[in-house]
Amino acid sequence: MALEGIISLFLIISVGVYASKKNIITKEINKGLTDLLLNISLPFLIISYFNLKFSDEIKTNIIICTLYSGITLVVAIIISKLLLKPLKKEDKYIIQFSNVFSNCGFMGFPIIEGLYGKEGLVYASIFNVLFTIFMWTYGVGLFTGGINKKNVKKVFANPSIVAVFIGIIIMVFGIEIPSIIMKPIEMVGGITSALSMIIVGVILSNVNFKEYMKDISLYYGVFLKLLVVPIIVYLIMAALPGPTKVMKIIVLLHAMPTAAMLPIFAESFNKDKEYASVLLFMSTLFCVVTFPVVLLIVGQ
Length: 300
Description:
Layout: H1 2-21, H2 27-49, H3 59-84, H4 93-100, H5 108-144, H6 149-156, H7 159-172, H8 179-189, H9 192-204, H10 209-213, H11 216-239, H12 244-254, H13 261-268, H14 273-298
Helix pairs in contact: 1-9, 1-14, 2-7, 2-8, 2-9, 3-4, 3-5, 3-11, 4-11, 5-6, 5-12, 9-14, 11-12, 11-14, 13-14
Transmembrane segments: 6-24, 36-54, 60-84, 96-116, 122-143, 155-175, 187-207, 219-240, 246-266, 278-298
GO biological process, one term: transmembrane transport
Keywords: Cell membrane, Membrane, Transmembrane, Transmembrane helix, Transport
């Protein structure tokens, strides 16, 4: 399942590379696609995540999943900061983002569903809620120099954060959205994963890989992301009380490759999008080896 997800990612990325090489998607068009993703398709996808129905027997598990997802994201932030201190690199905040935020949606959801069924997908969706809140606050802060009074309003006015609040209201109050409205939301949101990979492919098509392959920080960042952070999260989860299934799912979601939003944020905030794209590419590639190791440690 993991291998299938990774191959799918690379195939969609190759579409972006091809479209760029054939000048079908220019830099200007790619910027427009990025804006489309950030302002329309991603917010719609987030709202669709909250359209959940669950029985009373798993409500307690959902509460625990919410709490532990938040704890592990904070843990990932702290671990990464400590382990990145020796790294003398100006834009190591890109690796920090990579270590905290994984590809828990496009790659994580189908793998978790394959391992744990629909119930597992509910817990993965709850993790994604916390993930989204952290990404659009702490994650954005990494690229903008921190969440301060000046940009707090911008962050919370962001369409994705607005979508999170709308989604929370829908879930907490059990609001039934008519299918005539929900279906278009899901359809538009459904293009997000493929669109993000195409955008990454366009960015990668202009990258000088030989230059980046000599950068040791990339390999160190991938090692932290795919093995160190997930294993430390696992050790913390093993020491806490709670449903084993929920805890395993949280660990496995942390073990996914870097979030596809990394190079998209880099492009949006005019940072080193090439470095971010190569980091995403390498973490996805090496995940073929590391994910089975983490799965073996965690146990199914």
